[in-house]
């Protein structure tokens, strides 16, 4: 049969599990869990959490026409809010993040400011 270090032999060392049928976009079962919200987590997530977006839910449920319509509605609402802000000369300021500079790389990044939890406490 030959030794394991025989360069003339091939050995199967790993094989992917077969993918379940009916999953869109050739996604893996692992990827499908990314937007899942555990019932224990639901009370703690922000209402703006992207996992709650109706267009994402519809896309995952295979309702592609509704997903596209809903995504367009959300984007148009964002554009309208931006136009109002710009007409007033206001700049958008994120509520839960502040722009910081990495001391090592000098690159900008968005850092969570912790204010979300303070606001939740006030809201009860």
UniProtKB/TrEMBL annotation:
Top-rank taxon: Eukaryota
Pfam families reported in the protein's UniProt record: Oxysterol_BP
GO CC list: cytosol; nuclear envelope; perinuclear endoplasmic reticulum; plasma membrane
Molecular function as annotated in GO: sterol binding
Family that this chain belongs to: Belongs to the OSBP family.
Keyword Membrane: no
InterPro entries: OSBP_sf (IPR037239), Oxysterol-bd (IPR000648)
Keywords: Phosphoprotein
UniProt record, GO biological process: endocytosis; exocytosis; maintenance of cell polarity; piecemeal microautophagy of the nucleus
Keyword Phosphoprotein: yes
SUPFAM superfamilies: Oxysterol-binding protein-like (SSF144000)
Protein name according to UniProt: Oxysterol-binding protein
């Amino acid at each position: 049969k030959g030794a394991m270090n025989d360069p003339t032999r091939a050995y199967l060392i790993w094989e992917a599990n077969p993918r379940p049928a009916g999953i869109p976009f050739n996604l893996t079962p692992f990827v499908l869990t990314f937007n899942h919200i555990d019932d224990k987590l639901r009370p703690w997530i922000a209402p703006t959490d992207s996992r709650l977006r109706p267009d994402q839910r519809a896309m995952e449920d295979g309702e592609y026409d509704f997903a596209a319509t809903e995504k367009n509605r959300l984007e148009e609402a964002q554009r309208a809010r931006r136009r109002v802000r710009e007409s007033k000369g206001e700049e958008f300021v994120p509520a839960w993040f502040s722009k910081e500079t990495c001391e090592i790389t000098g690159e900008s990044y968005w850092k969570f400011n912790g204010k979300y939890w303070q606001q939740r406490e006030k809201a009860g």
